[in-house]
Amino acid sequence: MRRNDRRDLGLLLLRLGAGGVLAAHGAQKLFGWFGGHGIEGTGQFMESVGYAPGKASATAAGLAETGGGTLLALGLATPAAGAAAAGAMAGAAAVHAPNGFFNQGGGYEYAATLGLTAAGLAITGPGRLSVDHLLGHAVNRGWMIPAAFAATAAGTAVVVGARARRLRRAKEGEQEALFEEEYME
């Protein structure tokens, strides 16, 4: 097997693996498939972790994951697909960041891994075993990479920033007890 063949096969496997996981994860949000909670349940969760409105946030995250993952798996519009999936995973990482890095403690390890893989594929390109290649890379041009990441970064910064402000305001409204309850009796 030649070096280029190995590279293309490796990119195909990365795209199918990461894209498939992202698409399934998004389908949980959008449709309730694979043990997910659908738009209603995911919307309630999104609202509880500071993404409001919850239903719109669930829809946006679900579309970025399902759409981005599906397109990555196909190797179609790879810059936009990878950037969208990476943006969704940045939003997920923000939720899990207070729990540290490792997934077993509820950390952001999983979201970071999927996001970085999607970003890497967006930059590297899909390889020859892709729909982009079949279409002559019509939706996989070099200029599309910075454009897709700039748009995604701007959108992600606005959404994650709004969430952080919302959580900060909610925390400011809470007051810690001056005395522990056992001393109050």
Structure characterization notes:
The protein is built from 8 helices and no strands. The chain is mostly helical. α1 crosses α2 (38-48), α3 (54-74) crosses α4 and α4 (78-96) runs parallel beside α7 (144-172). Helix content is 72%, strand content 0%. The protein is elongated, with a radius of gyration of 19 Å.
Keywords:
single chain, about 180 residues, mainly alpha, about 70% helix
Structural class by SSE content: mainly alpha
- Tell me the number of strands: 0
Helix content: over 70%
Main beta-sheet strand count, sense and barrel state: none
Order of helices and strands: HHHHHHHH
The number of helical elements comes to 8
Rg over C-alpha atoms, rounded to the nearest angstrom: 19 Å
Apparent shape: elongated
- Calculate the terminal CA-CA distance, rounded to whole Å: 78 Å
Oligomer: single chain
Overall pLDDT:
93
Low-confidence stretches: none
Task: Note the beta-strand portion.
Answer: under 5%
